[in-house]
Structure prediction request, 260 residues.
Amino acid sequence: MIFETISYSINNGIGILTLNRQEQLNALSGQMFREMIALLRDLETAAELRVLIVRGAGRAFCAGGDVVEMTEGFGGSMGFYDHMELANRFTIALAEFPRPVIAQINGAATGAGMNVALAADITIASEKAKFSQIFGNVGLIPDVGGTYLLPRVVGRSKAKELVFTYSMISAQEAFDLGIVNKLVPSEKLEETVQEYAAKIAQGPTRALGIAKKLINRSFESDLRSALDFEALAQALCGNGDEHKEGVSAFAEKRKPDFAL
Prediction:
């Protein structure tokens, strides 16, 4: 696939999706949404992919929505709504992607860019990273899942504070709030993300994908429903090749090879 606003590569089961509009600090345009949706849909059934890293090219992760597009307008309210529907399709494609997703935050992750990170499964950030729900600065509400994802990470009251003040928070503050899983010096960011990705890539991809789906659903489920889903999913996993390999490796006192 040929892209103009993103790039993609894969090595040893580790895929890397790079937001690649450096001059615009990787601001999310309609074209970028379309290209990312197409890539994610194409990768859903890619057997060689075991974990996906999402990162930004240059000095920022993502500065949010493309203000130039907003200034030019979307052809009225319905045009803006259609644009947001496109953004919504991307958010669902990323949040429900059937492989673990790691967000690699090298710089600013603001507005929709912050919410892209929230839609990932694990976020690893440079100490120089910064975050903001900056929407209020341009008279908008959080999008790309912000009103749903943020309170589930930081709690309702803190989410409101971040949205109402639209202030910038440091990487350390984001780590303390649980927005960031791991904080590292900028020179160690690439190495650390690769190490995390390599460890996940060695795991049971199908089982991890199912676990991700159940965890995502748990916020809208009661305990009994969650247990029912677990029982059904475990029965599927228990008859799968990954479980058989894991049991064989345990009996043979060796490391399992889940790349079946």
In short: The chain is about 50% helix and 15% strand. The first helix runs from residue 30 to 43. The beta strands are 6-11, 14-19, 51-56, 60-62, 101-105, 108-110, 122-126, 130-132, 169-170, 182-184.
